[in-house]
Amino acid sequence: MTSKKLVNSVTGCADDALAGLVACNPNLQLLQGHRVALRSDLDSLKGRVALLSGGGSGHEPAHAGFIGKGMLTGVIAGAVFTSPAVGSILAAIRAVAQAGTVGTLLIVKNYTGDRLNFGLAREQAQAEGIPVEMVVIGDDSAFTVLKKAGRRGLCGTVLIHKVAGALAEAGVGLEEITKQVNMVAKAMGTLGVSLSSCSVPGSKPTFELSADEVELGLGIHGEAGVRRIKMATADEIVKLMLDHMTNTTNASHVPVQPGSSVVMMVNNLGGLSFLELGIIADAAVRSLEGRGVKIARALVGTFMSALEMPGVSLTLLLVDEPLLKLIDAETTAAAWPNVAAVSITGRKRSRVAPAEPQEALDSIAAGGSASKRMALVLERVCSTLLGLEEHLNALDRAAGDGDCGTTHSRAARAIREWLKEGPPPASPAQLLSKLSVLLLEKMGGSSGALYGLFLTAAAQPLKAKTSLPAWSAAMDAGLEAMQKYGKAAPGDRTMLDSLWAAGQELQAWKSPGANLFQVLTKAVKSAEAAAEATKNMEAGAGRASYISSARLEQPDPGAVAAAAILRAILEVLQSQGV
Fold first, then answer.
1. For 488, phi and psi rounded to 5 degrees?
2. Can you list the alpha helix ranges (DSSP code H) found in 186-273?
3. Mean pLDDT for the chain?
4. I need a labelling partner for 537 at 20 to 30 A (CA). Which of 222, 275, 318, 451 fits?
5. Is residue 69 a known part of a binding site?
6. What Gene Ontology biological process does one annotation of this record name (predicted)?
7. Which of 143-147, 476-480, 518-522 has the lowest mean pLDDT?
8. Model pTM score
């Protein structure tokens, strides 16, 4: 079965993609009759060297994303994973020559089709009297024994675009740029890894991987790598990649040693999430610095992809200060990141968090009977929530991500860890304030924020008094805060429904002579009934509001959790005979 792609046609997808890039970038123009994009200010390049690159489409943002002042003059694009036509390459060379440039450098990735087509266009242009040079970039560090074809051109080519662009912008001549670029290319290596393959529009995936396998050392055209390894952690995979890239017995290794200074590129091969990319970047920084390598610059993002391949490549370029200045030089290329000209290694990456206000640190008489009772209540709440984890997750799957139980369990475990540090405050206001901070920090999600809001607001009326009317007022304050910031109302099928129902019953505490347990028992039963009733409600707030009401046949998990918490509180207080 062929993969699904958002295209107009398989045959026209490369043209449409390039046209879209140019349509949205006033600094680019298409060359009529060719799949070529050029700088729109070609006339400003008179007397300077032009830089042309390209290759098959499907590697976006490479290469057209790197057209701009300080990088490429133009790009020739082929069909997906297909070398561009000789006629289009020659047309691009002629176009920049007619603009008054003093020569053209072709920057070509080391693939047979690219070498042949760009090489033939160069020969024809030279026959017409146009000065043209060509550099072939091979930065692949996958192969331990080099074959006749040499190293493949991968993401490191983008760094060559940058270096050559900075030299050309500075007015350096064609021969000198060619010489310097060839030297830089020898001090660079790239290695890729992927969780699965990609698929060319109109075709099936290019290779298959088992669920527990990862492909190491693959190229950027969907071809398989040098070997398959078992799925492992990000740290383990990054270590394996760097070990392979820097192993001196590897004929294509990068000569990185302790004390070396490098530019590091963490490149998304197209389908990796940004979350995973950040994890890989962190692992790479830690691993390199642990080897004594100085990371002078770090570029993290999508630079040269392989369609939707869920993988990543690491590129290391050995640098000195003159080379760093070229990397840091200004460019208007849309896909080049805004990288600070500051070394990564040696930079302070964290700052001390502000101290809590003194009032929050002063807990009163902990360890008394009231404190012990608080601990028992909290322990019962925690055990209740942990026991409901799977049930709440199952209820939550109908509305989306199915993590309500996990979120509440995370809160329960955080509370248990906190209780191990010592007895909780005996002051109800301080207890609720402490729990608020804890849940906001540890629980996560909208539930953590809502409970945090509720507890913060509820603590305020209890600072002066802890009578039954004060507890009723605390419930009112908590509910008001939840509605104000959460935008939910009773009947919206949220945790508020349970709490609101309980709050209405707790109004009775404001009457003289109100009985603690009679009112609280009614409040808990009302909360449980309200939770059950949510299965007949249409969601008006929260993630469930985006789901068709016909699919929501179970009660709201947040409402169920809130009712269960109230039940746990009641049972402990009854057992203690408060």
1. -90, 155
2. 234-246
3. 92
4. 451
5. no
6. glycerol catabolic process
7. 143-147
8. 0.76
State phi, psi for 530 to the nearest 5 degrees: -65, -40
Please compute the mean of the pLDDT values over residues 375-397 and round it to a whole number.
Answer: 94
Paired tokens of 448: 């953590």
109: which strand partners?
137
Q: Which amino acid is at 115?
A: R
Q: Which residues contact 285 (CB under 8 A, 6 or more apart)?
A: 264, 295, 298, 344
d(CA 283, CA 30): 41
Q: 59 a known binding residue?
A: yes
Q: Which residues contact 270 (CB under 8 A, 6 or more apart)?
A: 198, 302, 305, 306, 307, 308, 309, 310, 311
Which residue shows structure tokens 């990054």?
238
> Angle 193-315-298 (CA atoms, 0-180°, nearest 5)?
115
Strand order in the sheet with 36-39: 28-30, 36-39, 74-80, 49-57, 103-109, 132-137
Of 57-71, 319-333, 348-362, the range with the lowest mean pLDDT is 348-362
Q: Given this model, what pLDDT does residue 148 score?
A: 84
CB under 8 Å to 226, separation ≥6 — which residues?
Answer: 142, 143, 144, 216, 217, 218
- The answer to the question of whether 114 is labelled as a binding residue is yes
Which segments within 324-417 are labelled E, that is strand? none
What are the beta bridge partners of residue 433? none
- Predicted confidence (pLDDT) at residue 359 exceeds the cutoff of 50: yes
Q: How confident is the model at residue 361 (pLDDT cuts 50, 70, 90)?
A: very low
User: Mean of the pLDDT values across residues 376-405?
Assistant: 90
Helix count and strand count (H, E) for the chain:
18, 12
Neighbouring residues of 89: CB distance < 8 A, sequence distance ≥ 6: 52, 54, 76, 106, 117, 118, 121
Checking if the pLDDT of 552 tops 90, the result is no
Q: What is the pLDDT of residue 540?
A: 60
Task: Confirm whether residue 139 is marked as ligand binding.
Answer: no
Give the containing element (helix H, strand E) for 514: none
Active site residues: 221
